[in-house]
Amino acid sequence: xxxxxxxxxxxxxxxxxxxxxxxxxxxxxxxxxxxxxxxxxxxxxxxxxxxxxxxxxxxxxxxxxxxxxxxxxxxxxxxxxxxxxxxxxxxxxxxxxxxxxxxxxxxxxxxxxxxxxxxxxxxxxxxxxxxxxxxxxxxxxxxxxxxxxxxxxxxxxxxxxxxxxxxxxxxxxxxxxxxxxxxxxxxxxxxxxxxxxxxxxxxxxxx
Length: 207
Known about the structure:
Blueprint: E1 11-17, E2 20-26, E3 29-31, E4 34-37, E5 43-47, E6 50-56, H1 58-79, H2 85-98, E7 106-113, E8 117-122, E9 128-130, E10 133-137, H3 140-150, H4 157-174, E11 182-188, E12 191-194, H5 197-206
Antiparallel strand pairs: 1-2, 1-10, 2-11, 3-4, 5-6, 6-7, 7-8, 8-9, 11-12
């Protein structure tokens, strides 16, 4: 029997837009050169306005998500408000840096909305960078090619959704470890919202 933690592969994208953040990821899990699952969730809500997208070892990603959700709840109880995006990214970086000799095999995008939309990329050694757009995973070079060519500062959230879908779709066409559908999440001052499959399919048809 194959263990879920052995499943790997992914492309994730995060984009800062006017009024919110978009996170997108494919839905394939691979074991070596084999496709083992075609409906894998790779974007996770951490708190009302906070989310994580993970690329890498599925078991490690899920373990970190559980820890971050617990820490976010504890922060709310102690401080009386939601953790900021930067605070969640910093916490993630500290956890990863503290376990670098027995690491979480993953690369994480932390996105959300506090006073404004923000996104951070955190590597498995705890290196943290913030930018207007980020990508991680096996197809990231293909996604970055699209993002660097088409991202415009101040683009609205619907334009950001379309760009994120296009970036993931390009990776799907070029990277064998990326595929089997696209998950898209919007994070605004209203909170976390996942797009339906019909909404994503409609965007794909318009590309």
